[in-house]
Amino acid sequence: MNIKHHKVIILGSGPAGCTAAIYASRSGLEPLMIRGLEPGGQLTITTGVENYPGFAKTIQGPWLMEQMEEQAIAVGTKILTGTVISCNLKSKPFQFKTDSDETFTSDTAIIATGASAKWLNIPSEKKYKGYGVSACATCDGFFFKNKIVAVIGGGNTAVEEALFLTKFASKVILIHRRDKLRADKILQKRLFKNRIIDVVWNHVLEKIIGKEDKKIIKSIIIRSTQDDKAGEIKLDGVFIAIGHKPNTDLFKNQIKMDNEGYILTKVNSTRTNIEGVFAAGDVQDKIYRQAVTAAGLGCMAAIESEKFISENL
Question: Which among 39, 92, 123, 276 could bridge 35 via Cys, Cβ 3.0 to 4.6 Å?
Fold first, then answer.
């Protein structure tokens, strides 16, 4: 077996992974960044980015990630497109096996695998997923031009999805299980000012109804969280926007996590309970979850990796 060794292996290529790669490369560590199933992370499915420092005008998420990756390559990062299917963090050097049957080892590892959208896990949601049910407005919004859609959720993700969908849909119905939103005030202000958006408070999505033969959505059944009464809304699409789950299943039973699957790190650090393993971005940050904070954590992880290598190897 041909096993390739690196000083640093970075898992993930979002803002955290790319920034870690840039800093690790500039420190002479010659990192390998494994891109995974979603190269560029969640920003590649985000169109308008308004809050990343350095850009007065709205920029496109995919473009921003292309620039980060190009910068990482320019300073010496090696990039592998593939998915790690198994790893061993319990012995050194750390070992990673990919879906192309390649094996890599490293002295340190930076976990920056990001997070994925959560689903409601009701039977009809699974049935119509990809046939009118989506978790990504920027991916699928275009298909609902001049149609009625619902967005399920009440945080930043839900409000951003609802606002984006107004570019295409004739009406957007935001359905939230509580009587107030968790989203940032500036986003709420935009939402309430938009005449295309209606908000349905204190309701949950119970069932999605469609045409059996063509798998086309016709309506949804929602149920009140106050009096348990059910109602039907006719529409064409449903977007689930109830948050995200960290992509950490690969590391279960090897590294310490909280009860939601987020990797635990030391205070003011990206160090995990395993010496030489660092975690950055949405895999360990469930409070801020911003591109800029992920990038900052990626920087920290690279600096801490370089320090670990210089002191221990």
Answer: 39
Task: Mark whether 198 is an active-site residue.
Answer: no
Residue of 18, 87, 107, 140 with catalytic role: 140
| Spatial separation of the C-alpha atoms in residues 247 and 277, rounded to whole Å | 16
Which residues make beta-bridge pairs with 5? 105
Residues 6 or more apart from 225 whose CB is under 8 A from it?
Answer: 177, 178, 202, 203, 204
DSSP 3-state of 172: strand
Catalytic residue among 99, 139, 179, 258: 139
How far is the first Cα of the chain from the last one, in angstroms, to the nearest whole number? 25
Best CA proximity match to 36, nearest among 88, 95, 100: 100
Convert the pLDDT of each residue in 231-264 to its tens digit.
999 999 999 999 889 999 999 999 999 999 999 9
Rg (CA), the chain: 21
Residue 10 has pLDDT above 90, yes or no: yes
Rounded to whole angstroms, the Cα distance separating 158 from 136 reads 10
Cα-based angle 150, 61, 181 (whole degrees, multiple of 5) = 35
pTM greater than the 0.90 cutoff: no
